[in-house]
Amino acid sequence: MRWRVAGFAALCLFVSSVATRGEDADRRVAIVLTAEEKAFVLGQMRLFVESIERIVSSLAAGDRTTAAEAAAARGGKRFQAENVMPATLGAKFPEMWRSFGQPMRKGFDELADGLAQGEPESRALARLGETMRNCVSCHQSYRIIDARD
Cβ atoms within 10 A of the Cβ of 97, count? Predict the structure, then answer.
C-alpha cells in the first residue's frame, strides 16, 4: 500500500513539474492586455487571416480588384483613417512589436497599390509573402497574456 501511495505522489509531482515546465518553455515576450485590448488585437489578427485568404483566393481566380480591396482593408492608410484602436493599447506595445506591425500594414498598402497598378500576380504573391514574414516574426517573439484586474 505504501508503494502505491509513494508512486501516486511521485506521479503527481511529475505531472505538476511537466505542466510548469510547459509554461516556462514559452520564452516569447509577454504582452499584458486587458480583456478589451486583447479582444481588439485578436480580432485584428483574425481580420488579417481572413484578408490573406481573400487575397490568395482572389488572385487564384484572376480577380485583382477584390485582392486589392482585401489588401487595402488591412493597410495602414485605412487603419489610421478608421482610428479604432483602444487609446490604452499603443503604450503597451514594445518598440519591437511596432517594428513588425507598421511594416506589415505598409506592406498591405503596397500590395493594394501594386495590384491596382497592374503588377503581375507573382509579384503580388511575393509581396504578400514578404508582408507575412512580419506576422511570423511577431508571433515567434510575443504572446498575449491577460491582465490581472
Answer: 15
Cα 136 versus chain centre, distance: 8
User: What does residue 142 show for φ and ψ, rounded to 5 degrees?
Assistant: -130, 155
Instruction: Report yes or no on 20 lying in a domain.
Output: no
- Cell 485568404 locates to 53
In a domain, 42, yes or no: yes
**Structurally, how many domains does the chain consist of?**
1
- pLDDT tens, position by position, 2-55: 665 555 555 555 555 555 555 568 899 999 999 999 999 999 999 999 999 999
pTM: 0.79
- Distance (Å, rounded) from C-alpha 93 to C-alpha 38? 12
Inside any domain, residue 73: yes
